[in-house]
Recover the amino acids of this structure.
């Protein structure tokens, strides 16, 4: 039951502290759309997406009006397209165009799932899809791609890692006239979750139901405001409690919106992803939360410890608020999408090496980082391998979404606009890892995988 204090507090969170529902994402299974004829398969996929998602955007708007809660994005995720491609063969671009047409028809801003799951090796369709990811992202506005190259249970597919360095760079080259945005729509995962509602990494896992509604909430500004109100005299145990209570309230709102959308659309409710997803807006920054906890600047010594406290407290508060917590859930650190991270990167206090250390305790990985345009493909691949190793050993999701800024050097900037924000080109160690990558094969699964 909500009392007047709860209602007024929520209104303040929305109006003054940037609280919103970041996304309602409809996951749609394409398993019944497979066909040996690629045109027939594409037609079935288009028809099914339009049939299930035709009311998604309108429903989001109705919920916004009813409750006064901003719902920033309405999105779709689908079964990894490498799977129907394996059944049909043919040109993967046909699937990309079918997804784009469907997304346009129903009015969503992004559709995720131009994806492949290759953590233990390649199956039919995987290599073909990976080879065409750059072209697909350059030729479409709404299609997002992801590839899972590693898992705690299987190890890291280093042959796939080697391919992805080239895919990331080519995606940037093909969209160099658009701030290299193609690379911003491509995520390389280790331990990718099947129910993630956030782009660009969302896909609808093979173990998911035929159709489901997943919700991603966001509230860095709310958490920072709560800590500021509590003052500087709180010890770190009290800080953790404040974050837990705040995460509980944020997650409750997400649970309500997800349940309402599920009822209105007539599809099951899946999960609430309670990740603190920042934006470039002032006051909506994970970096500023860390500084509120006590850092002079994000990136300085103590940053990883403060982020570990934040991430753990967010998860604990969210789990108490909902029995359907999933996705990534915790704290995101996308550099170009976070005003505080942008400022710290510009000042030089936040480096890629420090960001890599932070990914051991946050909810995702090296996210929305702009790197020099002349970065070699093998260096990008090795960066992916490093991040995948952190995920594999720690049994957590890690990911890489880096943007080679074609024609730009350290200190220059890319400006994407909107939620993607902007970011300075950050320095990257380019000592050659080519011998490591030429070995190929698979980094075996660690001892932690033997839990049965």
């Amino acid at each position: 039951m909500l009392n007047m204090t709860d209602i007024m507090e929520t209104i303040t969170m929305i109006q003054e502290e940037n609280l919103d529902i970041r996304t309602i994402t409809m996951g749609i299974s394409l398993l019944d759309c497979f066909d040996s004829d690629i045109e027939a398969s594409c037609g079935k996929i288009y028809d099914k997406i339009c049939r299930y998602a035709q009311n998604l955007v309108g429903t989001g708007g109705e919920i916004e009006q009813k409750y006064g809660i901003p719902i920033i994005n309405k999105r779709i995720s689908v079964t990894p397209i490498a799977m129907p491609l394996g059944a049909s063969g043919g040109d993967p671009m046909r699937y990309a165009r079918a997804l784009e047409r469907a997304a346009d028809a129903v009015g969503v801003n992004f559709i995720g799932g131009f994806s492949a799951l290759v953590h233990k090796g390649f199956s039919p369709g995987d290599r073909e899809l990976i080879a065409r990811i750059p072209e697909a992202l350059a030729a479409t506005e709404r299609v997002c791609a992801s590839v899972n190259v590693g898992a705690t249970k299987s190890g890291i597919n280093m042959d796939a890692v080697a391919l992805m360095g080239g895919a990331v760079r080519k995606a940037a080259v093909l969209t160099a006239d658009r701030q290299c945005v193609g690379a911003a729509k491509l995520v390389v995962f280790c331990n990718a979750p099947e129910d993630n509602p956030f782009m660009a990494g969302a896909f609808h896992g093979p173990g998911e139901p035929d159709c489901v509604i997943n919700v991603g909430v966001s509230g860095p500004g709310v958490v920072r405001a709560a800590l500021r109100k509590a003052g500087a005299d709180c010890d770190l145990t009290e800080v953790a409690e404040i974050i837990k209570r705040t995460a509980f309230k944020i997650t409750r709102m997400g649970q309500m919106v997800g349940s309402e959308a599920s009822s209105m659309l007539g599809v099951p409710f899946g999960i609430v992803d309670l990740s603190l997803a920042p934006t470039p807006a002032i006051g909506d920054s994970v970096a500023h939360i860390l500084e509120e906890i006590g850092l002079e600047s994000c990136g300085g010594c103590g940053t990883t410890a403060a982020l570990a406290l934040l991430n753990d407290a967010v998860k604990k508060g969210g789990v108490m608020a909902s029995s359907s917590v999933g996705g990534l859930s915790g704290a995101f650190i996308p550099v170009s999408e976070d005003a505080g991270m942008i400022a710290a990167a510009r000042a030089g206090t936040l480096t890629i090496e420090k960001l890599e250390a932070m990914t051991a305790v946050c909810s995702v990985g090296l996210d929305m980082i702009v790197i020099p345009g002349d970065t070699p493909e093998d260096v990008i691949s090795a960066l992916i391998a490093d991040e995948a190793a952190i995920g594999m050993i720690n049994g957590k999701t890690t990911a890489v979404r880096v943007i080679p800024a074609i024609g730009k050097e350290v200190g220059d900037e890319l400006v994407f606009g909107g939620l993607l924000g902007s970011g300075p080109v950050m320095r990257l160690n380019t000592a050659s890892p080519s011998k490591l990558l030429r070995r190929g094969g698979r980094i075996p699964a660690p001892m932690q995988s033997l839990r049965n």
Summary: The chain has two domains: 25-190, 216-439.
